[in-house]
Amino acid sequence: MSFNIPIGPQHPALKEPENFTFTVDGEYVVGVKVRIGYMHKGIEKLMESKNYIQNIPLVERICGICNVAHTLCYCQNIEYLHGKEIPRRAEFIRVIIEELNRIHSHLLWIGIVAHEVGFDTFFMYTWRDREVVMDLIELLTGNRVSTALNTIGGVRRNIDNDKAYRLKKGMEILERRTKYYKQIATAEPTLLTRLKGVGILTPKEAIKWSAVGPTLRASGIKSDVRADDPYAAHDEVPFNVITYDSCDVFGRLMVRIDETLESIDMVRHCLDHIPSGPIRIRLPNAPPKGESISRVEAPRGEDIHYVKSNGSDKPERYKVRAPTLGNLLSLIEMLTSKGEYVVHIADIPVVLAGIDPCMCCMDRSIKFIDLRKEKVWTWTWDRLKKYSKEVHEKSK
Amino acid sequence: MGLLNWARRRSPWLLHFNTGGCNACDIEVVAALTPRYDVERFGALLVGSPRHADIMIVTGAITRQVKRRLIIVYEQMPEPKFVVAIGNCCISGGVYRGAYNVQEGLDTVLPVSAYVYGCPPKPEAIVKAIFALQEKIKNLEKISALKKVNKG
Amino acid sequence: MKKVNEVNSYMAMTFEALRHILKKRATILYPFKEREKVHVPKGFRGELVFYLDKCIGCASCFKVCPSETIEIIYDGQKRRPIFYLDRCTRCQQCEEICPTHAIELTDNFETVGFDRKEKIVK
Predict the structure, then answer these.
(1) Higher pLDDT, residue B21 or A69
(2) Looking at the domain assignment, is residue B142 inside a domain?
(3) Of the four listed, A179, A231, A282, B142, which is most buried by Cβ atoms within 10 Å?
(4) For chain C, which residues make up each domain, given as ranges?
(5) Which structural domain, as residue segments, surrounds residue B88?
């Protein structure tokens, strides 16, 4: 006898509006249906009516938590279109602010997982230490959350010796506290019982359902854009790609704590080896005709942007594929009980928080409604690929 | 009656509703509960159900799909109730003005009692807004109709 | 051996909690007592201020603003902008491009209001 539980747009466990309908059989979850689209705002259409400089704050507000990744991807895209290289000092400053953003996002996630488990003390401790990073970001850029440091052709503000000294002191405090959190996470019995064995995703399933980011790396697969396809001074800054072999939420927690420690080392390396020179070059308003793709490792996974320009100062088409869209299908796989693997109702918020959902990046939905014939249909992935190939062949 | 108003003023229970913005104002609202800013000194508490709440905090640009659900949640709250709009996207549409799926402000949907400007506002500004609202509702009989809804 | 480890991990969190009794508090008592301890660095992007006497009417600020904050009107002899401050994203692009430094972003972060009529004409 199965029963449907809706968890709707307003719920104390969810911070964003989305709707899930769970089919349960006693205490075990048997199926899930996802209904997204509450956060669809029409950003891509709005970008076609503003010029390239006006689009920078709009791209930054696709997501408030991983905003540096989106502006970095956008500015790199436009610079590839122009075909120019930016100064080396600007690339190092871009890496510094990107890693600071990664530290703040991972500390935020560790607190949210502890809050969903019920361990509120850990939540308060992590967010108190996150204030150290927020003060450093505010010192460098002027605002805690929307940084607005990247621009087309370089960065907008410079780092002098006073700021570099305070950055190094902040990194020391953070390293000591992060090592203490790693010690708690491996030894505290309440966290271990609630996080181990929950939300299992085997490596074969992870590749089949196109998972990205720490969700993929916790299943043992080595895949990181900073190592596979280096951009913006990542070819000179050494780091390790972290993987874990337990395919559950506990593995994702350990991957993120270790990535925080790696980011702290990267910021220190950048501050020691930064070259001197200019930080910005001037580029003309209208890039030449063409198309371009760029990808970046956001804190939640791989982020891809595509631009097509026709020679004027407004883009003709801009497309964003945010990382949570790749993780959403693996969520459905993780939340169905089959065979020996059971999912209890109490595990639902833990698994939902475990993929680090950022639904605001993700809501771009398509559904075809033909008004003349009054027919509604949706296409499968293969049919859509075939159609796009046909259109591309015709337009050549 | 003075004692009842004093008790109501000193313990505002908050309900947080995110109507589809970029999440930056959301994490500043959650940061207002953490040890450095600590809005619980004023008696505020974050609750999960609209039936327990006094003040509804709305963040994010309002999309067409969320508008109907927002009105349903607002009508479930018991009297006396107040609405606080946080962030420029909620007050006037913000950067998303002109997009096809975004309303231009919370004023067109619900009666609003206080506005907090900023993109996103610092958590200290959110703490100050709750305190300023407490001062404003000192005499509850005068504030029977705070703002008429602007339809259109 | 496993039981000793469990007891150790329980005691670790207890010791941490007891240690914090002797430390100073983490809360900043804004807005009554400790207003000056709020962290506002130099170069903070707060609310906008406009000086009309320095403006020459070139309208470059209108071309870079992302959110329709700036509107250009004719004032008899020359053009000047009107700012709708409830749409401003505080991105500082208008301050960078203005040739006469007529726009400035201050450190005011306490922007709470009860009325939406916040346009600047000055």
Answers:
(1) A69
(2) no
(3) A231
(4) 2-120
(5) 2-136
Task: Please give the model's pTM, rounded to 2 decimal places.
Answer: 0.89
Q: Which of C8, C120, C102, C18 is nearest to C60 (CA)?
A: C102
The minimal CB distance from A128 to the residues C12, C26, C64 is found for C26
Which percentage of chain B shows pLDDT scores above 90? 22
Model pLDDT for residues A164-209, shown as the tens digit of each residue? 999 999 999 999 999 988 988 888 888 888 888 888 888 998 888 8
Q: Does residue A372 carry a pLDDT above 50?
A: no
Q: Do C92 and A121 touch (CB under 8 A)?
A: no
Please give the Cα distance from B34 to A125 (Å, whole number).
9
**Residuewise pLDDT in 10s, chain C (122 residues):** 455 455 555 666 677 778 777 777 778 877 777 677 788 888 899 888 899 888 888 889 999 999 888 988 887 888 888 898 888 899 899 999 999 999 999 888 888 888 777 667 76
Whole-angstrom CA distances from B146 to A303, B72, B104 are 45, 20, 20
Is the preceding omega at residue B120 within 30 degrees of 0, hence cis?
yes
CB contact under 8 A, B65 and A37: yes
Are C28 and B36 an interchain contact pair (Cβ–Cβ within 8 Å)?
yes
Distance, in Å, from the CA atom of A136 to the CA atom of A174, rounded to the nearest integer, reads 12
d(CA B134, CA B143): 12
Hey, what CATH topology would domain C2-120 get? Alpha-Beta Plaits (3.30.70)
Best mutation target, A39, A58, A59, A123, to test chain B (most B CBs within 10 A): A39
Q: For C91, what's the count of Cα atoms within 13 Å in the CB-facing half-sphere? A: 30
Residue-level pLDDT at A189:
82
pLDDT at position C122 is 65
Is B94 part of any domain? Answer: yes
Going from N- to C-terminal start, the domains of chain A cover 41-345
CATH code assigned at B62:
3.40.50.12280
Pick the CATH number of A41-345 from 1.25.40.20, 1.10.645.10, 1.20.1530.20, 3.40.50.1580: 1.10.645.10
Contact A379, A387 (CB under 8 A): yes
**pLDDT value, residue A381:** 56
Q: Does residue B148 lie within any of the structural domains?
A: no
Chain B CA closest to residue A47 = B99
The ipTM, to two decimals, is 0.86
- In-domain check, residue B42: yes
Residues of chain C above pLDDT 90, percent: 11
